[in-house]
Amino acid sequence: MKNRQPAKAEAPATVVDDTALSDLEQGSNWLAYGRNFSEQRYSPLSQINKGSVARLGLEWVMPLPKDRSLLGTPIVVDGVMYFAGSWSVTRAVNAKTGELLWEYDPESIKHAGDRLRIMWDSNKGIAFWKGRVIICTIDGRLIALDAKNGKPIWEVQSTDTKKATYISGHPIVFRDLVLIGDGGTEFDATRGVVKAYNISDGSFAWQFFVVPGNPADGFEDETQEMAAKTWTGKWWEHGGGGNTWNGLTYDPEFNQVIIGTGNGSPWNRKLRSPDGGDNLFLCSIVALDADTGKYKWHYQTVPGESWDYNSSMDLVLADIEIEGAPTKALLHAPKNGFFYVLDRKDGRLISAEKIAKVSWASHIDMKTGRPVEVEGQRYETGPAVVWPSPFGAHSWHAMSYSPRTGLVYIPKQEVPAVFDDSGIKSVDWKSPHFYADVGINFPVDQDVPANVASSTLLAWDPLKQEKVWEVPQLEFWNAGTMATAGDLIFQGGITGEFAAFDAQTGDKLWSVNVGSGISAPPVSYAIDGKQYVSLLVGWGGTGVSLAGGTALQQFGWAFGAQQRRLLTFALDGSQKMPELGAPMIPSPIVPTDFRIDENQAAQGAKLYVRHCAACHSSGAVSAGYAPDLRASTIMLSLDAMKDVVIDGAKVQPYGMPRFPEFKEAELLALQHFVRSKALLAAAAPAGK
Asked: What's the pLDDT tens digit per position in 631-648?
């Protein structure tokens, strides 16, 4: 009888819970949005390193022909990758081969209905907890799926369906609770809130309101009463804002949830709080007791904000030594252009310095912790050119932190904006309801030309509060970063290049062009001792859909021109990079028999800014999220426009919303506006 070798014992399944998500050392899995509770986006894997990265090649490809904007972070657990694509369609794939295991479609378009007019298709990520995949949908639902088969276990509507709110961020899970916030400040009178639900059945656990409500209704607790003292006027009629659409972190060492809060509703403080005030807790970092949601501490980055400088960016936990003492630090780079280091035990400000061009404030007063504002930058007496713009010096594109180098790696951008509220009076202004109005006259009916913005990949020392190195990049809206123990920084960008940089020097050590603009950050994991790097490729996000213009259109990532993909790389990978579709810039149609009425076009411009620009981009120059209307044959026919705009012919599968209240005169005005923009483009000199 032959001797039999004992069967190889299988590794026990990973239980994704507080213990697993607190483990900073394991690297085989990528268990959460930022890999673990720290949100550092740092992989301790080092097989792919400065010496070996030149051998990095494509290992496998998963085509995603039905997807559009891919912004999310995949999660990897025991060799299975889970990710959400457009409209939160969620998939599980074999992380070694790319084989599809299951797919779940939450039918977001169907559930959203006419609320689609304030929604996009994008989703920033999912969560995993004890065999359950937690997804959120743009129409405001939170859904738990069985990780084995993708079958729904429970579902809850987290947002008020009568309000223009949505969920575009990612949930976090801790202590058997799942936490989520929402967005919508620009489209309705909203009151920001974060909500916690029990992971077992989706039942409600607790909530925290970011801004106080109407005093006449009574305050939920003493924290809301305290916050109300920092507001003036009848702010509750405008909601107040503070929607927390990103920037959620659980800190297990202090059993606290730390949230980064949003901007005001409306942006313009003169309208929502006319006699001034700090307007707590707008643009703040707020710590809550994880079990109860009760307030613990806060730090406000922009008191009484008026520029959309929300703090809904990454909140990174790091143990660093400050002046010889070990410190439990919080690292934060919000939109406003400063980098903050806080003691997360109590929210004490340790340091704050500029990382970009900042004109609204000269510095942060370390005695008070408050910014020292520059006169005139609140557009008090007229239009003001302000740095940064509402797109921020750093937006939601994830930064990373390497404990090996002690540096933070930030996708930084330099974009100005003109703030002007001329002609807007608080006695006349009304909050929007399912359309865009922020209380400022932004020229969204105008193109965003090339070369008005720039970007860099910035390596920042949070202790010295100084730049270590910086790599110039084109325009703005480059993707998030990942740091690794191989002393590499991975980042994709607007040009379609996916690259690895030396974490210490910024030298580019490897790159590949993936054939389309990149919006998502990469992840890394290991199976059977082999390290992989994965990346979703699907150009999109609010900067693409709203700002757009020639600045972003010039790269050729037009609507429907390139197929979306999930790409995975490994050492000595030998697959050929697939052709996603050639870059294409739409050609505006200029009919010879169409005569533009300037009055009609002016009326159409107002309608376009209010209802269309959020998807079809500034000046009707689309950067790829939606069709370029100047090149659309639909815009040549009022009947065709009626079919799409009023009757909803493009609701499925594109999510183009219905506007049943539109009259033929309004369609005609929109037509004249779009035709005027097409004529303007045709008359421009070549290359302009």
From this structure: 999 999 999 999 999 999
